[in-house]
């Protein structure tokens, strides 16, 4: 991840980031500007986001000539028009064909943006709005139910996601879980880890859950050889750690060298979630 440090970058944030190791960060310094800051606000079901200092726009070219160059997957959150520009930049870099994960930016998830979205869909591998954003784009009633989400995913796939409709749609739906669908396999719900059966009170702050989900998805795609359904289990587990507190989860490494996040094992959570999914599929088939 690229971190742009301004002249006011907090030392305590720097120290906290480095507790996760230095390999995942690429720091860039600019003493002539302040650090980009933003504000998330929540009022009931309403979520607001705004920059409170000037932002820096990142592009795929920023990854070149860093140790982060040419990752296997790239996740971008932006307008459909900006997504086309990012795809074009990726295509200009010879030999780089990442899995592209597009998350439409919330304030552009309106019906007027649907034509622009249709233009970008054939060029991405995965489309992943959240449920409210998906329904808004399609002019569906903004009542999130499983059937509404399933219909939305089907509509997006009809528009043609990926080259020759080979892509996937993943609609993130909060406590309902995430609905995963491709043109060659029927849709499947992936549970949120913290559900009614697994301590819903563990959810403290959902800020960053979408990013954590899609970052976990990218890692899962690598581990699961591109299986988007299996990768979504990793995504759900990743998000489960992010929502347990304000800020980043706590990382510790035991004497045996095994990492724990929030005093729990990601592998344990993955197995719990996988077993839960298997039981639900088995019950549905009987």
TrEMBL record:
Pfam families for this protein: PfkB (PF00294)
Highest classification ranks of the organism: Eukaryota, Fungi, Dikarya, Basidiomycota, Agaricomycotina
Carbohydrate kinase PfkB domain boundaries: 111-247
Organism (species): Suillus subaureus
PANTHER family membership: PROTEIN MAK32
Name of the protein this chain belongs to: Ribokinase-like protein
